[in-house]
Amino acid sequence: MLLFGSPVSTLPVRATEHTLIAVKPDGVQRRLVGQIIHRFEQRGFKLVGLKMMQASEDLLSEHYREIVKKPFYPLVRAYMTAGPVIVMVWEGSNVVQSSRKMVGPTNGAEAQAGTIRGDFSFHVGRNVVHASDSTEGAQREIGLWFQENELLNWESCDQDWTIEANEDKQ
Ligand SMILES: Nc1ncnc2c1ncn2[C@@H]1O[C@H](COP(=O)(O)OP(=O)(O)OP(=O)(O)O)[C@@H](O)[C@H]1O
């Protein structure tokens, strides 16, 4: 019986993508890192890179090169360099677009409950997370924040650490 009308095999198969997610200094200071990671794990995406770092002004102006000339950019620079950030690379089908939906609109005041910004932010200048906005942007940002050898290739990890219910009794 087909509950939803079409067999699973007709679902579109998308190539695996990567995206850059960052927990901004306010998210780190407010101890939201675990909850944010949990949402991406729960959705089924794979974490392939993670580190905590203090963003330099140069790295940040390269990362935000599209807004660096905007009048509010000095506020963004002060905010993003005020403390450490957690940067992560997540892998999965359609992860770029899905992550943007999970994060919600830029201004937390306009973000729906259930999105990360909708649940944890109400101010555009303290919006807790960053998510790449396109696959090309993601590739560029991942290259800025990570060295290639800092990213895990899950396919080369053939060890299955799942413990079966009766295994741990041995
Ligand atoms: N008017 C503003 N005043 C203060 N900060 C702003 C303003 N507009 C944007 N920002 C900050 O600059 C960041 C980058 O803006 P952008 O327009 O690229 O939004 P975004 O793509 O939703 O955010 P991000 O790139 O951080 O995921 C925003 O996340 C926000 O922190």
TrEMBL record:
Topology relative to the membrane: Peripheral membrane protein
Top-level EC class as recorded in UniProt: transferase
GO cellular component: lamellipodium; mitochondrial intermembrane space; mitochondrial matrix; nucleus; ruffle
Chain residues that bind ATP: 24, 72, 100, 106, 117, 127
Keyword Zinc tagged: no
Localization: Cell projection, Lamellipodium; Cell projection, Ruffle; Cytoplasm; Mitochondrion intermembrane space
Matching InterPro entries: NDK-like_dom, NDK-like_dom_sf, Nucleoside_diP_kinase
Domain Nucleoside diphosphate kinase-like: 16-153
GO BP term (any one): UTP biosynthetic process
UniProt keyword terms in alphabetical order: ATP-binding, Cell cycle, Cell projection, Cytoplasm, Kinase, Magnesium, Metal-binding, Nucleotide metabolism, Nucleotide-binding, Nucleus, Transferase
Membrane-spanning intervals of the chain: none
Names of required cofactors: Mg(2+)
Reactions this protein catalyses: a ribonucleoside 5'-diphosphate + ATP = a ribonucleoside 5'-triphosphate + ADP; a 2'-deoxyribonucleoside 5'-diphosphate + ATP = a 2'-deoxyribonucleoside 5'-triphosphate + ADP
UniProt cross-references to NCBIfam families, sorted A to Z: PRK00668.1
Name listed for the protein in its UniProt record: Nucleoside diphosphate kinase B
Gene responsible for this protein: nme4
